[in-house]
Amino acid sequence: MLYWVIYDIKSDKVRSKISSKCKNYGLIRVQKSSFIGGLTRNRMEMLFIEIKDLNLDKGDCVFIIPTCKQCFETKNILGDLDEEGIKQKDFVIVQND
């Protein structure tokens, strides 16, 4: 399944840790606080727990949103996006555990 991770975090330190975790899970950056990539449900839950363990501040927010590959292919985008970087990952859909 493809997952979006989108966040709004006040602390630079926590924001940097979330970014590193997303990269470690093989997600690619789409915008400054937005990543996408293929994960099993189990790996998504592991990422969720790791982010939760960072003890977010009040007002911080993290979304982990599933989307199917077919739905992603119907996207509409305005502005600049590194679509080549996204295409290189090829977003192989991983079956849920």
Structure, briefly:
This protein is α+β, with helices and mostly antiparallel strands and 97 residues long. It starts with a strand and ends in an 8-residue tail after the last helix.
Walk me through what this model shows.
This protein has a single domain, classed as Alpha-Beta Plaits. The chain starts with a strand and ends in an 8-residue tail after the last helix. With 97 residues, the protein is of the alpha+beta class. A hairpin with a 2-residue loop joins β2 (28-31) and β3. Mean pLDDT is 85; it is low at 92-97. It is built from four helices and four strands, in the order βαββαβαα. It has helices at 12-24, 41-52, 69-73, 83-89; strands at 2-8, 28-31, 34-38, 61-67. The chain is 38% helix and 24% strand. Strands 2-3-1-4 form a four-stranded antiparallel beta sheet, sandwiched between helices.
Instruction: Give a short account of the largest sheet.
Output: 4 strands, antiparallel
Radius of gyration: 13 Å
| Major beta sheet, strand line-up | 2-3-1-4
**Mean pLDDT over the residues:** 85
- How far do the termini sit from each other? 11 Å
- The beta-strand count equals 4
In which range does the helix fraction lie? 25-40%
Helices, strands, pairings?
Layout lengths: L1 E7 L3 H13 L3 E4 L2 E5 L2 H12 L8 E7 L1 H5 L9 H7 L8
Antiparallel strand pairs: 1-3, 1-4, 2-3
